[in-house]
Design brief:
The strands form 3 sheets. Strands 6, 7, 8, 9, 10, 13, 14, 15 and 16 form a 9-stranded mixed β-sheet that branches. Strand 6 and strand 7 form a beta hairpin. It is built from 8 helices and 16 strands. It folds into 3 domains: 3-88, RNA-binding S4 domain (Structural Genomics Hypothetical 15.5 Kd Protein In mrcA-pckA Intergenic Region, Chain A, Roll); 105-187, Pseudouridine synthase (2-Layer Sandwich), CATH 3.30.2350; 192-311, Pseudouridine synthase. It has 346 residues and is α+β, with helices and mostly antiparallel strands.
Length: 346
Amino acid sequence: MSRADGGDADWPDQAPDLEDAPTRRIRLVVAPEDAGERCDRWLADRLPELSRNRLKSLILEGFVSADGETVSEPKTPVKPGSEVLVTVPPAAPATPQAQAIPLAVVYEDADLIVVDKPAGMAVHPAPGTPDGTLVNALLHHCAGGLSGIGGVARPGIVHRLDKETSGLIVCAKTDAAHAALSRQFAARSAGRRYLAVCWGRPEPPDGGVDAPIGRDPRQRTRMAIVRGRAGKPAVTRYEVLRRLGPGASLLACKLQTGRTHQIRVHMTHIGCPLIGDPVYGRATPARRARLSPAARAAAEGFGRQALHAAALDFIHPTSGAAMHFDSPAPPDMARLIEALAAPAAG
């Protein structure tokens, strides 16, 4: 067995802007006598400074690869002669601090709070985003009254939105509410509907994408369509709500699974990436050329992925009431839609 430490690597969390965070990389080579051993156990024997649970989390989050391929399951057997790379990111602050950051509170009671999150706000602290997050704001707003199930870095967080995705998110104030809401999201009985502006027009105009998603083995900050054991089932339903001129469409998207960057990856997969997406959303020159100068300027100047969590449905964990919330497209997306839909001058 050999080992090497050092260097920088990517942080494959939900936000690609963390790619410059410093990390530690550990390289190990599987000896012939270790063939067939579970990856998590094999790593635990060789990296006593990391707990078994920490190693399991690193595997599930895509931080472990063997011969360049991401290891997706802790139970994956190791192969003799394989080079295993473990990327250990720096820890996020252990205890986020309360910050007086304004929140657009849609609903609040003793059990939960629903917030309309703005684009540009990360949900929880992480390397590269130590504060200014939704968690920091909630700790101040709720005076510390948040569920602890999500851990000290993510109190109250039941589900997540990408930093640059705007819209509705529900957070738990009590452990009982957190557990009940988490079960609904895991069972997909909690409903989420997104508005998205994409390049082109999906065909058929009312359809779905069923393609597994996993970490891109070539670029760890990205997700990709990944076949085999490294990819996890992912299904997105979409509907074209409106054609926006000759080169774009307004979509309604519903998630039947909840993979990282799912809508963004799936729409790119069918040739209709989201406008403004810095990771997946580049349009072809031919598509850009079809737009009027004003529409092209609006699309190329849109500074984030055009994605908004517009509707949220769940059963209240205490009362049992059906809860439904709507959020219209925020001003930046509304301006983009208007510019793309406007007829060309002349």
